[in-house]
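Q: what does this look like with NAP bound?
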Amino acid sequence: MEEVIIIGTGCAGWAAAIYTGRANLAPLVLAGEQPGGQLTTTTEVENYPGFPEGVMGPELMMKMQEQATKFGARVEYKMVSAVEPAGEGFKVRCGDEVLEAKTVIVATGAAPRHLGLEGEEKLIGHGLTSCATCDGAFYRDVPVAVIGGGDSACEEASFLTRFASKVYLVHRRDELRASKIMADRVLANDKIELVWDTGITAYLTDDEGEMRAVATENFKTGEAGEIELKCVFVAIGHTPNAKFLDGLVDTDDGGYIVQQPAGTPRTNVPGLFAAGDVADHVYRQAITAAGDGCRAALEAERYLAERE
Ligand code: NAP
């Protein structure tokens, strides 16, 4: 039986692995579909302390992995389908395979949300994406749109101006939610056109099934419109990756794991801890996720020590 299984390899997972590794707990880290978490789809991270010149997201994650394995963390590339309490610990199911652990740290992060329009799934990779870093370079000298008004939308819109001939930023309100510095960057960029108070009502495709335009509606005037473009980048927030824990841990209305008592990584299940974006709909930063991973590791250590 493992002392600790850490599910997820974003900032929270790696920080938990570094701390439990240094505590000689030889953590087993399970990396799922997107090893390295959301930072692997980011370009430059300018606000992670210790990197005054900034650091590329994927590079930061590689360094965290290197640091964790140096202290004895083992990584397996498995998707967890369920976690169940069993005796003194937990059964962690990865399809047909069952692993056992005394403690579990859930650090599975959150996944980008989509609008829920018809044909969406088929369009992913054919002019619909939620990752400008991954796909922006495919859309050189053509018009594209970003949906949303938060920091992600602004960051993606600014980034896409390197490639696209024009970037429409389509937002459902007349004011950006993004931080002032990000919003100002967007508002000052000639290549970005703000489309306020507007929603996308349909994705329109060409004969080959590739995105060719979006149908829009202005929420204030009711006016319908169309924007011709080659790709839509959706940046409307995230859904926590906690479905596999349904019925076991308490979650809030948005599906985020409820840390209890608040401000600790503990959950309603003793021995099961939650860290990072899967339990945080407020801060959602690399540094807060890493801090949370550290706290989860310290809690797991204490929990194990008390049992012994
Ligand atoms: P967010 O702040 O929740 O913003 C989501 C945006 O999408 C909002 O403008 C929202 O509109 C819009 N939206 C939500 N559902 C929608 C729908 N169904 N249809 C149309 N629009 C919809 O999410 P985020 O931008 O991903 O940011 C998440 C967190 O990460 C934030 O704390 C942010 O500060 C942080 N972040 C930081 C950086 C950075 O510092 N470099 C970069 C990216 C993200 P409303 O405004 O009307 O609600």
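The longest strand covers residues 97-106. Residues 47, 115, 147-153, 155, 172-173, 177, 235-237, 284 surround NAP (CB under 6 Å).
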